[in-house]
Amino acid sequence: MIPGMESLPLPLEGITVVAVEQAVAAPFATRQLADLGARVIKVERIDGGDFARGYDRAADGLASHFVWCNRGKESIALDLKDPRGLDVVRRLIADADVFVQNLAHGAAARLGLDAATLCAAHPRLVAVDISGYGPSGPYADKRAYDMLVQCEAGLVSVTGTPEQPVKAGIPAADIAAAMYAFSGVLAALVRRGATGRGGPVEVSMLDALAEWMGHPLHHAMHGGTPPARTGLAHAVIAPYDAYPTADGGRVLLSVQNDREWRRLAEQVLGRPELGVDPDFATNAARVVNRERTDALVGQALGGLGADEAVGLLERAGVACARLRDVQQLAEHPQLAARERWRVVGSPVGPLRALLPPITLPGGGEARMGDVPALGEHTAALLRAVGMADTKIAALRRDGVVA
Length: 402
What we know:
Layout: E1 16-20, H1 25-35, E2 39-44, H2 64-69, E3 73-77, H3 83-94, E4 98-101, H4 107-111, H5 115-121, E5 126-131, H6 146-152, H7 172-195, E6 199-204, H8 205-212, H9 214-223, E7 240-244, E8 250-254, H10 258-267, H11 283-288, H12 290-302, H13 306-315, E9 319-322, H14 326-330, H15 333-337, E10 341-344, E11 351-354, H16 378-384, H17 389-397
Helix pairs in contact: 1-7, 7-8
């Protein structure tokens, strides 16, 4: 422990964020800010709120996407098409440090909530526009959902088996945009600390996921051919795949260099001569002879249980892992040993949640607040911007707030 570190506050304490957000990209970005201490005010529609609230009921009656992306926020439900509702948002923004929105293309500008307009009126404000394809160009007006952007960015073309491309099992385009929005806010706040000015931040889902496609993109642009889809195997490394074990499990291993191959051949395969056999001694040779290589490894591991196979590989210094499903992830011994689980409140009671990956040892733990009910904080926030209870009651009666 570094002396004095134990008294450090969370890095974003004192920062207020207003977000007109929905689905995953913006909510996941602002949840990172909330976890690091920022106050996040989530502006939702009065007719059901963030539509991610309705995706499923898997989290004890709440939507799993919503629980994941929205803990630690205050929810205010407003009709932004009514000038009185829009006025409330503008009052909230006037006292905010950060504004984030991911409305459909053009919607924020029509409301005067685009980054350029807001930053002109509030020079210290950091204002983030998250879009599918960016503010200009032939795709600017296209609807952008995660699976569609995965396809446009080429991710689907390199994911799956040789016979069948598949999308990623998580919303990769949303997550990519969220994390660049998060880091963009942090960078803009650092710049504001030096210059006194905030400014716009633009993030598009396509730009973000295209950046994540760096390896296959450069492979195709400069090598002339795109990487092949290889399932759990690796296009240019062998052995690198999942292999069945005698107890029905699957163990993955990755041989990164020829020294590891020699250890695998001697200590796991029981065939030390394969370490110098021209058909297997180099990675290039093993890739050419992938089927034979995989058959040798599969035969050796196929007679062992998963635990036994992993133990043998680890003793040989060969990188390996079990193929786990999401239920097994929830009980992962490493997460348990490092005490990564916490409990957060919600409208349906306590729910398990993972600590965020950013750990700041010595200071305060991440602030993992409750998942809000729709409009849970509407009255308190309206009072905070100076509204009397009689006016709040009138707004409720007129359907402007909920």
